[in-house]
TrEMBL record:
<dbReference type="InterPro" id="IPR027417">
    <property type="entry name" value="P-loop_NTPase"/>
</dbReference>
<feature type="domain" description="ABC transporter">
    <location>
        <begin position="16"/>
        <end position="253"/>
    </location>
</feature>
<keyword id="KW-0067">ATP-binding</keyword>
<dbReference type="Pfam" id="PF00005">
    <property type="entry name" value="ABC_tran"/>
</dbReference>
<dbReference type="InterPro" id="IPR015854">
    <property type="entry name" value="ABC_transpr_LolD-like"/>
</dbReference>
<dbReference type="GO" id="GO:0005524">
    <property type="term" value="F:ATP binding"/>
</dbReference>
<dbReference type="InterPro" id="IPR017911">
    <property type="entry name" value="MacB-like_ATP-bd"/>
</dbReference>
<protein>
    <submittedName>
        <fullName>ABC transporter ATP-binding protein</fullName>
    </submittedName>
</protein>
<feature type="region of interest" description="Disordered">
    <location>
        <begin position="233"/>
        <end position="255"/>
    </location>
</feature>
<dbReference type="InterPro" id="IPR003439">
    <property type="entry name" value="ABC_transporter-like_ATP-bd"/>
</dbReference>
<keyword id="KW-0547">Nucleotide-binding</keyword>
<keyword id="KW-0813">Transport</keyword>
<dbReference type="InterPro" id="IPR003593">
    <property type="entry name" value="AAA+_ATPase"/>
</dbReference>
<dbReference type="InterPro" id="IPR017871">
    <property type="entry name" value="ABC_transporter-like_CS"/>
</dbReference>
Amino acid sequence: MALHTADRDHVPDDVITATALVKTYRQGTAEVRALDEVSVGIRRARFTAVVGPSGSGKSTLMHCVAGLDTVSSGSVVLDGTEITGLSDRQLTRVRRERIGFVFQSFNLLPQLTAHENIVLPVTLSGKRPERGLVRHLCEVLGIADRLSHRPAELSGGQQQRVAVARALVARPAVLFADEPTGNLDSRAGAEVLTMLRRSVDDLGQTVVMVTHDPAAARYADRVLTLADGRVVKDEHTNPSGPAAAPATDVMGRRR
C-alpha cells in the first residue's frame, strides 16, 4: 500500500459546510428551536470539538451534519454532496461510505474478536479489508497485540480504541465522536482522546467530537461552543494532546 505525505496546511477546504441550519420540534404546545440559523464549516484533517451545556444543540448539530437527523431548513454539504433532501436509502449510503461513528457505548459484537469487529463494516459491504491499513491503524491506536481478544477480555479504553479503528477502516471523510469518553474513567478517556488526536496528526483524519468535558475539548484544534441553538464562540486552539507531526496520509482523501 502506497503511503502519501500530507501537509495539513495545504488542505484548507471544508469537508462539511452547514448553512443557516434550523431544527425545530414540538414540545407539547410549544415549538422548540434546537438549532437557530447555524452556519459553520468543518476543515479537513482537523480535530473540531463541539461543546455546550445540555440542551444547547450540540448533539443536534452533529446528528444533522452527519445525516442522522433531518433539518427544518438550511443546507448541509458533506464531502461535496448536498445531503439535505436525500432519501433514507441515499443517506444510508452516504453514512456507510463517507462517515465513521464512535459513541459512548462501544457497540462491539461480543462473540467476535477485536480484529473481526474492526473489519466487520468492510466485510459487510462485500469488500476485502486492506491488511496494511488495518495493521497500521492498530499500531497507531495501540491495540496490535489485542486483536485476538474478545471485547470482554479488553479494558474499556481498549474497547473504545477498537471502535475507533472500526470507524476508520473504511477511510471515512469524517469521523464523528459523540461523547466518546463518557463511559470511561479519566485515564482511559485520556488514552482514547490521544488516539483521536493521533488519527488527525498521523493519518490526516477529520474528527468532529461532541463533548461536555472542557478537558476533552483541549485535544482539539478548534472548539465550537453552542448555547440556545446558536454558535456563540468559535476558538482555534493549540491542542494539549500530542504535538502534531508530519502526517502520513494512509487514509486517503475523497475528492
